[in-house]
Specification:
heterodimer; A: mainly beta; 0% helix; globular; B: mainly beta; 4-stranded antiparallel beta sheet; 47% strand
Amino acid sequence: DVKVTQSSRYLVKRTGEKVFLECVQDMDHENMFWYRQDPGLGLRLIYFSYDVKMKEKGDIPEGYSVSREKKERFSLILESASTNQTSMYLCASSKDAYNEQFFGPGTRLTVL
Amino acid sequence: DAKTTQPPSMDCAEGRAANLPCNHSTISGNEYVYWYRQIHSQGPQYIIHGLKNNETNEMASLIITEDRKSSTLILPHATLRDTAVYYCIVRPSGTYKYIFGTGTRLKVLA
């Protein structure tokens, strides 16, 4: 079975902290994605990676960066967390860019 | 903006078929219809997708009208575990972007 895991289900951080969210997939997928989900706004794409060390900005990349050093792992970095980054963060992967995406369970991040 | 319109909520009796409609009147010829669902506090789960033909898999059936302006997701025998928010998404072929709308909250009643 397809498996996408995320490092934490719940995380609480302080304003200004550097935050790392980790995502691992075991399906040998080329593509990985980071979304955030907020009530009334649906899912919004933050960043997309189509290969190791390759990335592309999504719709809302401001305040975030990403790292993909290995095929199976895709990290989302909040350089200096702010309260408006409180959200549910979802990682996904797909075999190629045009196939269905498989999502992880999500990390609910609260920034105080 | 989402290119789909779904009712905000629906109820279905356990054991009955759940029929979830989706309107996508501005769909283009190369755009696929995808369905996902999200059970509370979990990540979205892929259900099914199609272009113009009806599709069926172990989870559901997807019926797309001939003009492709609307579709229906059918869960043939709904169970309590099917209670979730169901998202209908239109995605152009050749792109990776999904645009998730607000979906339909399906409640399966015992």
